[in-house]
Amino acid sequence: MTYSRRTFLRLGGQLSAATVFLPLLHCAGETKVADEDAEASTDEVTTAAGSLSSFGLQLYTLRDLLPDDPKGTLKQVADMGYTQIEGYEGDQGMFWGMTAQEWKDYCDELGLSMVSCHVNINENLAEKAAQLASIGTAYAVCPYVGAQDGQAGWQTIVEQFNAAGKTCREAGIKFAYHNHAYTFEEVDGIVPQAYLMDRTDDTVEYEMDIYWVVTGGADPVEWLERYPGKWRLCHVKDRKKDAPLEDHEASVNLGMGSIDFPRILKVAAEQGMEYYILEQEEYENSTPLRSARAGADYLKQLKFA
Protein backbone atom coordinates (compact mmCIF):
# COMPACT_ATOMS: atom_id res chain seq x y z
CA MET A 1 0.00 0.00 0.00
CA THR A 2 1.25 3.49 -0.86
CA TYR A 3 0.37 6.52 1.26
CA SER A 4 0.45 10.15 0.20
CA ARG A 5 2.14 12.63 2.55
CA ARG A 6 -1.27 14.21 3.24
CA THR A 7 -2.77 10.82 4.14
CA PHE A 8 0.15 10.04 6.44
CA LEU A 9 -0.18 13.28 8.36
CA ARG A 10 -3.95 12.89 8.63
CA LEU A 11 -3.59 9.37 9.99
CA GLY A 12 -0.92 10.62 12.39
CA GLY A 13 -3.29 13.15 13.89
CA GLN A 14 -5.80 10.40 14.67
CA LEU A 15 -3.45 8.38 16.83
CA SER A 16 -2.52 8.86 20.49
CA ALA A 17 -0.68 11.95 21.71
CA ALA A 18 2.37 9.97 22.74
CA THR A 19 2.77 8.16 19.42
CA VAL A 20 5.82 9.01 17.33
CA PHE A 21 5.70 8.33 13.61
CA LEU A 22 8.26 7.24 11.07
CA PRO A 23 8.26 8.46 7.48
CA LEU A 24 5.77 6.84 5.17
CA LEU A 25 5.99 3.20 4.18
CA HIS A 26 6.06 2.87 0.43
CA CYS A 27 5.90 0.06 -2.13
CA ALA A 28 6.14 2.07 -5.31
CA GLY A 29 6.21 0.90 -8.90
CA GLU A 30 8.28 3.28 -10.97
CA THR A 31 10.91 1.98 -13.36
CA LYS A 32 14.39 1.20 -12.14
CA VAL A 33 16.95 3.94 -11.95
CA ALA A 34 19.16 4.69 -14.93
CA ASP A 35 22.77 5.70 -14.38
CA GLU A 36 23.81 9.30 -14.95
CA ASP A 37 27.19 10.97 -14.50
CA ALA A 38 27.82 13.70 -11.96
CA GLU A 39 30.86 15.09 -10.21
CA ALA A 40 31.42 14.09 -6.58
CA SER A 41 31.84 16.44 -3.67
CA THR A 42 34.51 16.31 -0.95
CA ASP A 43 34.15 15.01 2.60
CA GLU A 44 34.54 18.32 4.46
CA VAL A 45 31.43 20.02 5.83
CA THR A 46 32.43 23.58 4.98
CA THR A 47 35.34 25.22 3.25
CA ALA A 48 37.24 28.24 4.50
CA ALA A 49 35.30 30.30 1.95
CA GLY A 50 32.05 29.26 3.58
CA SER A 51 30.51 27.12 0.83
CA LEU A 52 29.20 23.63 1.50
CA SER A 53 31.43 20.91 0.16
CA SER A 54 29.61 18.00 1.75
CA PHE A 55 25.86 17.51 1.82
CA GLY A 56 23.33 14.73 1.91
CA LEU A 57 20.01 13.55 0.56
CA GLN A 58 17.04 12.31 2.59
CA LEU A 59 16.15 9.13 0.72
CA TYR A 60 12.46 9.84 1.23
CA THR A 61 12.92 12.24 -1.70
CA LEU A 62 13.23 9.11 -3.87
CA ARG A 63 10.55 7.11 -2.06
CA ASP A 64 8.89 6.01 -5.31
CA LEU A 65 12.14 4.47 -6.60
CA LEU A 66 14.04 3.17 -3.59
CA PRO A 67 11.80 0.20 -2.66
CA ASP A 68 12.02 -1.36 -6.15
CA ASP A 69 15.73 -0.80 -6.72
CA PRO A 70 17.68 0.17 -3.60
CA LYS A 71 21.13 -0.35 -5.06
CA GLY A 72 20.36 1.39 -8.33
CA THR A 73 18.85 4.32 -6.48
CA LEU A 74 21.87 4.66 -4.18
CA LYS A 75 24.22 4.57 -7.16
CA GLN A 76 22.27 7.36 -8.81
CA VAL A 77 22.47 9.43 -5.62
CA ALA A 78 26.24 9.00 -5.50
CA ASP A 79 26.57 9.88 -9.18
CA MET A 80 24.79 13.18 -8.53
CA GLY A 81 27.54 14.25 -6.14
CA TYR A 82 26.00 13.47 -2.78
CA THR A 83 28.42 11.95 -0.26
CA GLN A 84 25.94 11.59 2.60
CA ILE A 85 22.48 10.10 2.90
CA GLU A 86 19.77 10.14 5.52
CA GLY A 87 17.75 6.97 5.58
CA TYR A 88 14.19 6.30 6.62
CA GLU A 89 12.47 3.21 7.93
CA GLY A 90 10.14 1.69 5.38
CA ASP A 91 8.35 -1.61 4.96
CA GLN A 92 11.68 -3.25 4.09
CA GLY A 93 13.33 -1.85 7.21
CA MET A 94 16.09 0.72 7.48
CA PHE A 95 18.38 -1.11 5.04
CA TRP A 96 15.88 -2.01 2.31
CA GLY A 97 16.30 -5.77 2.17
CA MET A 98 20.00 -5.76 3.05
CA THR A 99 21.67 -6.43 6.38
CA ALA A 100 23.18 -3.42 8.10
CA GLN A 101 26.68 -4.52 7.05
CA GLU A 102 25.65 -5.22 3.46
CA TRP A 103 24.10 -1.74 3.29
CA LYS A 104 27.26 -0.14 4.68
CA ASP A 105 29.55 -2.11 2.38
CA TYR A 106 27.57 -1.06 -0.69
CA CYS A 107 27.45 2.57 0.44
CA ASP A 108 31.20 2.45 1.02
CA GLU A 109 31.70 1.25 -2.56
CA LEU A 110 29.77 4.29 -3.76
CA GLY A 111 31.46 6.78 -1.45
CA LEU A 112 28.26 7.33 0.54
CA SER A 113 27.89 7.61 4.29
CA MET A 114 24.53 7.21 6.05
CA VAL A 115 24.87 9.94 8.66
CA SER A 116 21.35 9.62 10.07
CA CYS A 117 18.13 7.66 9.75
CA HIS A 118 14.48 8.47 10.47
CA VAL A 119 13.06 5.71 12.65
CA ASN A 120 9.94 4.76 14.58
CA ILE A 121 11.15 5.19 18.15
CA ASN A 122 8.15 3.33 19.58
CA GLU A 123 9.25 -0.06 18.28
CA ASN A 124 12.54 -1.80 19.10
CA LEU A 125 14.51 1.43 19.40
CA ALA A 126 17.41 -0.18 21.27
CA GLU A 127 17.85 -2.76 18.50
CA LYS A 128 17.65 -0.15 15.74
CA ALA A 129 20.06 2.17 17.53
CA ALA A 130 22.56 -0.68 17.92
CA GLN A 131 22.29 -1.56 14.23
CA LEU A 132 22.83 2.04 13.18
CA ALA A 133 25.74 2.46 15.59
CA SER A 134 27.37 -0.71 14.21
CA ILE A 135 27.75 0.91 10.77
CA GLY A 136 28.84 4.31 12.03
CA THR A 137 25.58 6.22 11.60
CA ALA A 138 25.67 9.30 13.81
CA TYR A 139 21.97 9.95 14.49
CA ALA A 140 18.67 8.16 14.94
CA VAL A 141 15.98 10.75 14.22
CA CYS A 142 12.34 10.86 15.28
CA PRO A 143 10.58 12.34 12.24
CA TYR A 144 7.12 13.17 13.56
CA VAL A 145 4.98 13.24 16.70
CA GLY A 146 1.93 15.22 15.64
CA ALA A 147 0.39 18.23 17.33
CA GLN A 148 -0.44 17.66 21.00
CA ASP A 149 -3.53 18.88 22.84
CA GLY A 150 -1.63 21.16 25.22
CA GLN A 151 1.24 21.47 27.65
CA ALA A 152 0.54 18.13 29.29
CA GLY A 153 0.79 16.37 25.93
CA TRP A 154 4.08 18.07 25.15
CA GLN A 155 5.45 17.15 28.58
CA THR A 156 4.76 13.52 27.71
CA ILE A 157 6.82 13.99 24.54
CA VAL A 158 9.66 15.56 26.55
CA GLU A 159 9.78 12.47 28.74
CA GLN A 160 9.61 10.18 25.73
CA PHE A 161 12.45 12.01 23.98
CA ASN A 162 14.64 11.92 27.08
CA ALA A 163 14.10 8.17 27.32
CA ALA A 164 14.89 7.73 23.61
CA GLY A 165 18.00 9.86 23.97
CA LYS A 166 19.23 7.66 26.83
CA THR A 167 18.57 4.50 24.81
CA CYS A 168 20.49 5.86 21.84
CA ARG A 169 23.39 7.07 23.96
CA GLU A 170 23.73 3.63 25.54
CA ALA A 171 23.94 2.16 22.03
CA GLY A 172 26.65 4.63 21.01
CA ILE A 173 24.53 6.83 18.76
CA LYS A 174 22.87 10.24 19.09
CA PHE A 175 19.15 11.01 19.08
CA ALA A 176 17.41 13.96 17.39
CA TYR A 177 13.91 15.19 16.68
CA HIS A 178 12.84 16.56 13.29
CA ASN A 179 10.35 19.43 13.52
CA HIS A 180 7.20 20.20 11.57
CA ALA A 181 5.20 23.42 11.41
CA TYR A 182 2.99 22.51 14.36
CA THR A 183 5.79 22.91 16.90
CA PHE A 184 6.01 26.63 16.07
CA GLU A 185 2.29 27.25 16.53
CA GLU A 186 1.33 28.40 20.03
CA VAL A 187 -0.94 26.11 22.05
CA ASP A 188 -1.99 26.29 25.68
CA GLY A 189 0.25 29.31 26.23
CA ILE A 190 3.44 27.64 24.96
CA VAL A 191 5.38 27.35 21.71
CA PRO A 192 5.98 23.58 21.59
CA GLN A 193 9.40 23.80 19.90
CA ALA A 194 10.72 26.03 22.68
CA TYR A 195 9.04 23.85 25.31
CA LEU A 196 10.83 20.78 23.93
CA MET A 197 14.21 22.43 23.58
CA ASP A 198 14.06 23.99 27.03
CA ARG A 199 13.10 20.76 28.80
CA THR A 200 14.76 17.86 27.02
CA ASP A 201 18.15 16.86 28.40
CA ASP A 202 21.55 16.71 26.74
CA THR A 203 20.81 13.34 25.11
CA VAL A 204 18.33 15.05 22.78
CA GLU A 205 19.39 17.13 19.80
CA TYR A 206 17.40 18.59 16.92
CA GLU A 207 17.10 18.42 13.16
CA MET A 208 15.79 21.69 11.73
CA ASP A 209 13.52 21.23 8.75
CA ILE A 210 13.88 24.75 7.39
CA TYR A 211 10.81 24.45 5.18
CA TRP A 212 8.61 23.57 8.14
CA VAL A 213 10.04 26.34 10.31
CA VAL A 214 9.07 28.85 7.63
CA THR A 215 5.69 27.19 7.11
CA GLY A 216 5.09 27.54 10.84
CA GLY A 217 5.57 31.29 10.52
CA ALA A 218 8.97 31.38 12.23
CA ASP A 219 12.42 32.64 11.25
CA PRO A 220 15.05 29.86 11.04
CA VAL A 221 17.87 32.29 11.85
CA GLU A 222 16.15 33.38 15.05
CA TRP A 223 15.78 29.78 16.18
CA LEU A 224 19.34 28.85 15.24
CA GLU A 225 20.65 31.74 17.31
CA ARG A 226 18.26 31.07 20.18
CA TYR A 227 19.52 27.50 20.62
CA PRO A 228 23.17 27.39 19.47
CA GLY A 229 24.65 23.93 19.34
CA LYS A 230 21.29 22.16 19.63
CA TRP A 231 20.43 22.09 15.92
CA ARG A 232 22.87 19.49 14.53
CA LEU A 233 21.21 18.47 11.28
CA CYS A 234 18.98 20.35 8.87
CA HIS A 235 16.67 19.66 5.97
CA VAL A 236 17.44 22.06 3.16
CA LYS A 237 14.03 22.16 1.51
CA ASP A 238 12.66 25.07 -0.50
CA ARG A 239 9.16 26.57 -0.53
CA LYS A 240 7.21 27.94 -3.48
CA LYS A 241 7.28 31.69 -3.85
CA ASP A 242 4.09 33.40 -2.67
CA ALA A 243 2.63 30.15 -1.29
CA PRO A 244 0.40 30.89 1.72
CA LEU A 245 1.57 29.45 5.04
CA GLU A 246 -1.47 27.21 5.21
CA ASP A 247 -0.27 25.47 2.04
CA HIS A 248 1.70 22.55 3.46
CA GLU A 249 2.42 20.98 0.08
CA ALA A 250 4.53 23.76 -1.42
CA SER A 251 7.89 21.98 -1.74
CA VAL A 252 9.81 23.02 -4.86
CA ASN A 253 13.21 22.46 -6.47
CA LEU A 254 16.00 23.89 -4.36
CA GLY A 255 16.87 27.45 -5.34
CA MET A 256 13.55 28.03 -7.11
CA GLY A 257 11.59 29.03 -4.03
CA SER A 258 11.45 31.77 -1.43
CA ILE A 259 13.84 30.59 1.29
CA ASP A 260 17.13 32.46 1.69
CA PHE A 261 19.52 29.54 2.13
CA PRO A 262 22.80 31.51 1.78
CA ARG A 263 21.76 33.58 4.81
CA ILE A 264 20.28 30.75 6.85
CA LEU A 265 23.00 28.18 6.26
CA LYS A 266 25.75 30.67 7.11
CA VAL A 267 24.19 31.14 10.53
CA ALA A 268 23.61 27.41 10.84
CA ALA A 269 27.31 26.74 10.30
CA GLU A 270 28.23 29.40 12.87
CA GLN A 271 25.87 27.83 15.42
CA GLY A 272 27.19 24.28 15.15
CA MET A 273 25.28 22.61 12.31
CA GLU A 274 26.89 19.31 11.30
CA TYR A 275 24.79 17.95 8.45
CA TYR A 276 22.98 19.62 5.55
CA ILE A 277 20.44 17.28 3.98
CA LEU A 278 18.25 17.99 0.97
CA GLU A 279 14.67 16.76 1.10
CA GLN A 280 11.92 17.34 -1.43
CA GLU A 281 8.34 16.08 -1.36
CA GLU A 282 6.65 17.67 -4.40
CA TYR A 283 7.96 17.65 -7.99
CA GLU A 284 5.94 20.08 -10.09
CA ASN A 285 7.14 19.99 -13.70
CA SER A 286 9.91 17.63 -12.59
CA THR A 287 10.59 14.11 -11.33
CA PRO A 288 12.18 12.94 -8.07
CA LEU A 289 15.46 12.17 -9.84
CA ARG A 290 15.58 15.47 -11.70
CA SER A 291 14.76 17.37 -8.53
CA ALA A 292 17.41 15.52 -6.52
CA ARG A 293 19.99 16.33 -9.19
CA ALA A 294 18.93 19.98 -9.33
CA GLY A 295 19.31 20.14 -5.56
CA ALA A 296 22.80 18.67 -5.69
CA ASP A 297 23.81 21.16 -8.37
CA TYR A 298 22.46 24.04 -6.27
CA LEU A 299 24.29 22.93 -3.13
CA LYS A 300 27.57 22.48 -5.01
CA GLN A 301 27.59 26.15 -5.98
CA LEU A 302 25.95 27.67 -2.90
CA LYS A 303 27.94 30.37 -1.13
CA PHE A 304 27.08 31.63 2.32
CA ALA A 305 25.83 35.23 2.38
Secondary structure elements and pairings:
Blueprint lengths: L4 H10 L41 E3 L11 H11 L3 E5 L11 H11 L2 E6 L6 H10 L4 E4 L8 H21 L2 E5 L13 H8 L4 E6 H6 L4 H7 L4 E6 L1 E2 L11 E2 L8 H10 L4 E4 L9 H14 L4
Can you give me a brief rundown of this structure?
This protein has 305 residues and is an alpha/beta fold. It has helices at 5-14, 70-80, 100-110, 125-134, 151-171, 192-199, 210-215, 220-226, 261-270, 288-301; strands spanning 56-58, 84-88, 113-118, 139-142, 174-178, 204-209, 231-236, 238-239, 251-252, 275-278. An eight-stranded parallel beta barrel has the order 1-2-3-4-5-6-7-10, surrounded by four helices. The chain has a two-stranded antiparallel sheet with strand order 8-9.
Q: What overall form do the CA principal axes indicate? A: globular
What characterizes the major β-sheet?
A: 8 strands, parallel, barrel
Counting H and I runs of at least 4 residues, what is the number of helices?
A: 10
C-alpha Rg, in Å?
A: 18 Å
Query: pLDDT under 50 segments (min length 5)?
Result: 1-44
Oligomeric state of shown chains: single chain
At the fourth CATH level, what is the homologous superfamily?
Answer: Divalent-metal-dependent TIM barrel enzymes
Domain Xylose isomerase-like TIM barrel: 75-301
InterPro entries: IolE/XylAMocC-like, TAT_signal, Xyl_isomerase-like_sf, Xyl_isomerase-like_TIM-brl
EC number: 4.2.1.44
Protein name: Inosose dehydratase
